[in-house]
Amino acid sequence: MVQKYESPVRIYKYPFELVMAAYERRFPTCPQMPIVLDCEIVEDTVSNNGAKRETTRRCKLAVEAPYLFKKIIGVDVVFFIQKNFLDLKARTLNIEATNETFSSRIEIFEKCRYFAHPENPDWTCFDQTATLDIKNFFGFEHSMEKMGMKQYSQTTQKGKEIIECFINELKKEGITHVDRWKEDESAELTAAAVSTVSEKPPLSRDNSILDADYIAKHLGQLSPLQESKLVQFRKRIEESSERGVPDFQTLLRFLRARDFSIDKAASMLQESMQWRAEHRIDDILGEYKMPTVVEKYFPGGWHHHDKDGRPLYILRLGNMDVKGLLKSVGEDELLKLTLHVCEEGLKLMKEATTLFEKPIWNWCLLVDLDGLSMRHLWRPGVKALLRIIETVEKNYPETMGRVLIVRAPRVFPVLWTIVSAFIDENTRSKFLFFGGPDCLHAEDGLEQYIPAENIPSFLGGSCNTLIHEGGLIPKHLYKSDSVEENNGAVHGQDHHGLYKSIDLKPGQMFELIIRNTDPKSVLTWDFDVLKNDLLFALYRTDTVFEQSFNDAFSSVFDGAAFKEGATYTKLEDKVKCKPKEGVQGSHEMATAGTYVLQWMCPPSCDGPAQLMYFHEILSSANYKGSMTSLQSGFSSNSLQSR
Question: What angle do helix axes 412-420 and 379-395 make, rounded to 10 degrees?
Answer without folding.
Answer: 50
